[in-house]
Amino acid sequence: MASRRTPTTVGTVLETCLDRVAGEPGAAAIWRVWDDAVGAQIARRAQPIRLRGHTLLVAVSSAPWMQELQLLKRTVLTELNSRLATPMIADLHFVLAATPNVVAAEAPARTSPPRPCPPPPRTRDLETLPEPLRTCFDGIARAWQRRAHP
To answer: In this predicted model, what pLDDT tens digit does every residue of 5-63 receive, in sequence order?
Structure first.
């Protein structure tokens, strides 16, 4: 007589498959806890790509965010490992990459067209300045006038 096994949930099967793909038992949990560990603002701009050994590769939307995450690396590692059943991440490696889940840095919305440059300062405006400033601004004013009237 064949023994009957208890049914397995799809989630359990999927979790086992993801762990196998990630190469480490329990590694699929990294993707589940990422948003909570790093917070919504970072999660919009950085997402884990894969676990290579004990190094997690993370796609980041821009160079400034990559630098910010480099400064926060220890904190992110601590938060991630504290949320995993078994701490398994020893290092984070950030790569600049556009992935569907990573939002590019938002460009500030332009509300009005750029304003034209103001006219260069007049000579009589410069005469009221102290000597060191007047000398400095005089050179700037001449360069400005050469550029404005080639």
So the answer is: 777 776 666 666 666 655 666 778 888 899 999 999 999 999 998 888 889 999 999 99
Full set of structural domains in the chain with CATH: 11-96 (3.30.300.20), 118-150 (no CATH)
What is the widest separation between alpha-carbon atoms in the chain?
A: 107
3-class SS of residue 115? coil
Query: In this structure, what are the phi and psi dihedrals at residue 12, rounded to the nearest 5 degrees?
Result: -65, -45
Tell me the DSSP string of 117-145.
PPPPPPHHHHHTS-HHHHHHHHHHHHHHH
pTM comes to 0.57
- Sign of the CA dihedral 9, 12, 15, 16? negative
Q: Please give the structure tokens belonging to residue 17.
A: 């498959």
